[in-house]
Each structure stands twice: as structure tokens, then as C-alpha cells.
Amino acid sequence: MLILVGFGSFLGGISRYLTSQLIQTRFISAFPYGTLAVNIIGCLLIGLIIGWNEKFSLSSEWRLFLATGLCGGFTTFSAFSAETLLLMRSGQFLYAITYISVSVLSGIVATFIGASIFK
Fold first, then answer.
1. pTM for the full model?
2. Where are the domains of the chain?
3. Which of 31, 65, 68, 87 has the most CB atoms around it within 10 Å of its CB?
4. Alpha-carbon span 107 to 33, nearest angstrom
5. pLDDT in tens, 66-87
6. CB contact at 8 A, 96 and 87
């Protein structure tokens, strides 16, 4: 199982870098178009995996390789989106809103703190 996740992450990480660079070089801007595109593509991919699994029932090995490995290596934003969708589908809207809010705000604060440590 670890090999499947690791190999998927390897492929996802390379794909993230290449996709981000390809898109970002098309725009002359400080706005992170490459990362934004990777996050959206990753969310689309994990949504397709979820839908495929619901319709055709993927094996646990394929789910680990595709969702945890490939999408996780491509962008962790896809996991965040999938978990939020699952919360919403199960009627846990307060948890979903809390998860979104805390994830985004604390992520920005943590990034700021981490970057500030070396100043």
C-alpha cells in the first residue's frame, strides 16, 4: 500500500510542478495562476475519482494510488475539497463551514508565522 501511495505521490508531484510551470509562464503576473489551476484540476480529478468509485467501486489499492497518492501529490487541496464534500453530503454543514474557515484562515496564519521565523 505504501508503494502505491508513494508512486502516486511521485507522479502527482511531478505533474504538479510541470502543470504549474506551464500555466504560470503563460501569464506575466504575480497572481499564482499555476497554483490556482493545479488546485482546480486536482479538485476535478478527485471528484472524478469519487464519482467513478461510487459508480464502479474502485479497489482500495486504486483509491489509495489515485486519490491519496496521485491527487495528494498533485495538490492537497483536492483532499480538502473531497473531505468538505463528504461533510456536506452527510448533512454536516456546520462542520463543513468550520472546516473551510479554520483551514483557510489557520493555513494563512501558519504560513505567515513559518515565513516570519527566518526573518
1. 0.79
2. 2-117
3. 65
4. 19
5. 999 999 999 988 888 988 999 9
6. yes
